[in-house]
């Protein structure tokens, strides 16, 4: 009996003692290793960038730090989200004509450092005809984070946008001088960032819209069918484009051809025109209150210089420099008209535009009824009309902000430009002036054309950007970017740009991160 038990137990013992595959210890992890190579200006368009190529034996994510010339506040640091062993990433924010120190780190998923390397990247000087940049005030801790993108217009063709940091130093620039497509780039209003992180602009030289990457390389293009680009293109939340356009076969009722009086919507996927707004249908093409060009052929009677989308009610707001700011629905019907009340008549639809004029309110929310104020001959102590405006934007609170250029008032007034915020009640058809800045600066910031304004929500600041100050005093001729605290109107950043006799510096300026 005992012998039988032993015979059965022996195989069992052997089975339980034999190692299994799961018990085999894993090989020790290899030490992280990598190869790092870089190419400065890989496209020949952006001399202040580099392409970094990484090959590693483990997966990781790349962290880049461009060491600044002005302390920690001038460092540009970015961590890419991709986890991979092989990666190509852009290095942005290099200084021109300088041996830049770039620190590259390879991180695991918990941001622990696996590898690090310090690279020296030597760049070329800025192109010829670059503006002179003078920093007047800078308080980096009070400023909206990011760099300032200048849609430069001061150099010779092609237009050449650039970014400056809080110390006025150029850290990014696009130069299409030798480019086969964009060698004559004329983007008019300028360049902005898409929701996907790339940049975009319209080009009047090719009547097209272009999407480019951080290196400046063309990613997509949309050629405008039967239309010409001018001034402004804006991406809608759904990705389609609103464009201020020229229609090549449109005519005033007096028989002369017209220009700069169409808005179109372009389908992002197909490039098809989804909607057309002929401003001769919605506004009064015979109104000559601000300018009389009825004998011109072609005739620039309205000069639509900007369009934005209002997603709260699926409408568009158009800045018509020579007439008004107007809100239109998708049937090209007028919702309201923001302008002095002088000289309005009928549109082609038979609408009396006087019925759509907004009534100004004083600080106590009472209607202002003085005829001279309504007509635009004098200012009210609580309210001023907009004149030859640019760059409307909808603020987070729903109010409308714009760059009010001047000159102002039919009765004559000192010249000044300002950023102004209006609260509009569409049911009551009233408008109240809420905030302004610039009037107190007088001729120093007076720009009768171009220019921009933006609200900066992270610091509750306003970016006030007169792009063409052309006063008699040569010391203030050029352009300025001025960042002011909304609550106190303290100037936290001011930069002055000029280039000899070329007084026009830029059309628009934006604050944004150099990496999306």
Give a description of the structure.
This protein is mainly beta and 516 residues long. It folds into 2 domains: 34-122, Arylsulphate sulphotransferase monomer, N-terminal domain (Immunoglobulin-like, Sandwich), CATH 2.60.40.3100; 132-512, TolB, C-terminal domain (Neuraminidase, 6 Propeller), CATH 2.120.10.30. Helices cover 5% and strands 40% of the residues. It is built from 3 helices and 32 strands. It has helices at 2-17, 279-282, 371-375; strands at 34-40, 49-66, 76-79, 84-92, 99-107, 113-122, 132-138, 147-152, 162-164, 170-173, 192-193, 199-203, 208-212, 218-223, 227-235, 241-247, 262-266, 273-278, 304-310, 315-320, 324-328, 334-338, 359-361, 390-394, 400-404, 418-425, 430-437, 452-456, 461-465, 479-485, 491-498, 506-512. Strands 1, 2, 3, 4, 5 and 6 form a 6-stranded antiparallel sheet that branches. Strand 20 and strand 21 form a beta hairpin. The longest helix has 16 residues, at 2-17. 39% of the residues are buried.
Quickly list its features:
Immunoglobulin-like; 3 helices; mainly beta; six-stranded antiparallel β-sheet; single chain; 516 residues; globular
């Amino acid at each position: 009996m005992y012998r039988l038990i032993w015979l059965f137990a022996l195989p069992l013992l052997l089975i339980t003692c034999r190692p299994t595959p799961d018990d085999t210890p894993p090989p020790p992890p290899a030490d992280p290793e990598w190869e790092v190579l870089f190419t400065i200006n890989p496209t020949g368009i952006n001399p202040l960038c580099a392409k970094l190529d990484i090959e590693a034996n483990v997966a990781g994510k790349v962290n880049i730090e461009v060491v600044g010339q002005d302390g920690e506040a001038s460092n540009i640091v970015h961590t890419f989200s991709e986890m991979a062993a092989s990666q190509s990433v852009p290095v942005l924010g290099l200084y021109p004509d300088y041996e830049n120190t770039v620190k590259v780190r390879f991180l695991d998923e918990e941001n622990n450092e696996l590898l690090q390397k310090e690279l020296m990247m030597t760049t070329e000087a800025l192109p010829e005809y670059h503006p002179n940049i003078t920093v007047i005030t800078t308080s980096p801790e009070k400023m909206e984070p990011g760099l300032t993108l200048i849609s430069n217009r001061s150099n010779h063709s092609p237009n050449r946008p650039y970014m400056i940091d809080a110390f006025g130093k150029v850290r990014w620039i696009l130069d299409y001088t030798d480019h086969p497509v964009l060698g004559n780039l004329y983007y008019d209003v300028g360049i902005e960032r898409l929701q996907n992180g790339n940049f975009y602009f319209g080009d009047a030289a090719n009547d097209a819209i272009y999407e480019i990457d951080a290196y400046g390389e063309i990613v997509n293009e949309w050629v405008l069918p039967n239309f010409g680009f001018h001034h402004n293109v804006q991406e809608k939340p759904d990705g389609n484009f609103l464009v201020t356009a020229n229609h090549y076969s449109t005519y005033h009722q007096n028989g002369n051809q017209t220009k700069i009086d169409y808005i179109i919507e372009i389908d992002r996927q197909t490039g098809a025109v989804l909607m057309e707004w002929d401003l001769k249908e919605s506004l009064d093409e015979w109104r000559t209150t601000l300018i009389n060009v009825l004998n011109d052929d072609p005739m620039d009677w309205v000069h639509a210089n900007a369009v934005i989308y209002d997603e709260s009610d699926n409408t568009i707001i158009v800045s018509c420099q020579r007439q008004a700011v107007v809100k239109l629905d998708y049937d090209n019907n007028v919702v309201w008209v923001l302008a002095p009340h002088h000289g309005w008549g009928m549109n082609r639809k038979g609408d009396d535009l006087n019925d759509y004029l907004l009534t100004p309110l004083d600080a106590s929310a009472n209607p202002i009824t003085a005829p001279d104020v309504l007509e635009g001959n004098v200012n009210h102590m609580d309210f001023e009309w907009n004149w030859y405006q640019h760059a409307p934007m909808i603020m987070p609170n729903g109010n409308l902000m714009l760059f009010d250029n001047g000159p102002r008032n039919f009765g004559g007034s000192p010249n000044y430009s300002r950023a102004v915020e209006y609260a509009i009640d569409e049911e009551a058809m009233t408008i109240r002036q809420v905030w302004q800045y610039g009037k107190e600066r007088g001729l120093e910031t007076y720009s009768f054309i171009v220019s921009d304004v933006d609200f900066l929500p992270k610091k509750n600041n306003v970016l006030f950007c007169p792009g063409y100050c052309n006063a008699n005093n040569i010391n203030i001729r050029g352009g300025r970017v001025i960042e002011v605290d909304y609550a106190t109107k303290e100037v936290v950043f001011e930069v002055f740009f000029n280039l000899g006799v070329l007084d026009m510096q830029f059309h628009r300026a934006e604050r944004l991160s150099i990496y999306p």
